[in-house]
Amino acid sequence: MSEKHSPHSSEKEPSYYIACDLGAESGRVVLGTLAGGKLETEEIHRFLNLPVSYLGSTRWDILLMFRELKTALRKIAKRNIPIKSLSVDSWGVDYVWSGASQAMLIPPYIYRDPRTESCYQRALQEIGKELIYAETGIQFMVINTLYQVMADLERSQDILQMAQGFLGIADFFNFLFSGVRRAEMSFASTTQLYNPVQKTWSKLLCDLIGLTSRLLPEIIPAGTALGPLLAEVEKETGLKNVQVVATCSHDTGGAVAAVPANELPDWAYLSSGTWSLIGVELRAPLLTPEARQSGFTNEVGVGGSIRFLRNIIGLWMLQECRREWEREGRVFDYADLMNMAGESEPLRILLNPDDPRFVKSGDMPAKIEAFCCETHQPIPQTPGQFVRAILESLALLYRDTLNLLETITSRTIRHLHIVGGGSRSDLLNQLVADATSRVVLAGPVESTAIGNILVQAMADGEIGSLPQLRETVRNSFSINQFHPRSNSDWRIAYEKFRKIRSSKS
How far is residue 9 from each of residues 13, 37, 228, measured CA to CA in Å? Predict the structure, then answer.
């Protein structure tokens, strides 16, 4: 860290923070140690996050997650170090209905549950895309909170009569730890019920769907201290004198905060995991017809910044293929699959990752084979060929999206920062550099937890600004560069890719 930010930093005691980072596949608890302008992270506990299906619905196992989080806190308490604060982040859109006497009225639905499909179509017909986007600036996805809430209003009035309000997944865990019910702004902005211009819930949309204001939680900005850890949690875990902070409850908010970029507006980010979230950082929401028609969304980040991005399918296709092969008795780790993909013929098969069939779970290899038949392409024969097709198609989709971003925002994007789990893959990083003709800067991998921890440090006064936060990331973690290699085959492949997308859109 530069001396101008903390002239006596080397003399200070380290500051310790806990990030509880919940993903759609797994949860992890990370201990952060901030000293001398550098952050060190240590994964303390990791667990699978497995949804439960029953009676025609699919739900999140909230109590299992809470038990696992407290297990991690017990492990940390045994170290006898002075923890300053903790915070929970998670995926967006999903939520828990909470009552006055019951913290959780029903187990929350997983966003892939099909109950929202009819509500989505009804909203588009009765309210219209133009009005919804003008109010919220959020891209249209059947999984959005708006359509989930419409489904509850339609089918679960008995539950809503008992409800005091809804809380996003991370906000709900922050409530279980602190006893304070609040909606952090980064989550609220993902719901398609929040107005980013007025910076509050959209009264117009809530009135149109019949959502009463008493069910809307108070919205707070990222970096708000909620209060001390509840006495019952202290007693159960042994963790004492810890504050609970609402950082960016939506994990992508934390990941983008941790992008190790400079202050020049010549970069975009890609948070790469199950989903790919690719975009730029703006000072104000961009609500133009071009943004709506191109599927861009306006989500709120640290300091009220806007994450102008597209949420597109990411490594989900690869994850689903791996699960299907495992069911068949063929077990591969990701490193093996990447090696096999690297040895496979390049640009042989191109897919349209935006095809709706690829969003749903179930026998992904068969879906890819069907797509190849329909588009008169060779059928993949080996796991390496499947993976190569997925990675190259994602790289070309990123190129398409970056080109759109440049057109809509009038920016020139020279660098793409890739953070999250996907940044581990040197093969994918190089393919993205080659496909997009831009320099790729990969890392850090645990960007969500890093952003969570450093926003806690902002709340604590250890870090003074978002640029200083990003400087801390640059000082603390290695960033790998991948330069585009000149290859005319990518230009030909991109034209083929665009034709495939046009014919299958």
Answer: 8, 7, 26
pTM beyond cutoff 0.85 = yes
Contact assessment for residue 360 and residue 238, using Cβ atoms and an 8 Å cutoff = no
Catalytic residues: 251
Q: Which fold has domain 259-443+465-505?
A: Nucleotidyltransferase; domain 5 (3.30.420)
The per-residue pLDDT for 11 is 66
Q: For the CA atoms of the chain, what is the radius of gyration?
A: 22
Q: How crowded is the C-beta side of 197, counted as CA atoms within 13 Å?
A: 10
Give the Cα separation of 396 and 249 in Å (integer).
30
Query: Which parts of the chain register pLDDT below 50?
Result: 1-10
User: Domain ranges in the chain?
Assistant: 9-251, 259-443+465-505
pLDDT in tens, 64-88: 999 999 999 999 999 999 999 999 9
Q: How far apart are CA 283 and CA 303, in angstroms?
A: 10
Tokens of 12: 């200070």
And the tokens for 482?
A: 């991948």
DSSP state of 22: E
Q: Which two tokens stand for residue 405?
A: 């971003």
Is the fold of 9-251 the same as that of 259-443+465-505? Answer: yes
Q: Which residues pair with 220 in a beta bridge?
A: 184
CB atoms within 10 A of CB 497: 23
HSE-CB of 357 using CA atoms within 13 angstroms: 14
CATH 3.30.420.40 fits 9-251, yes or no: yes
Contact of 328 with 372, CB cutoff 8 Å: no
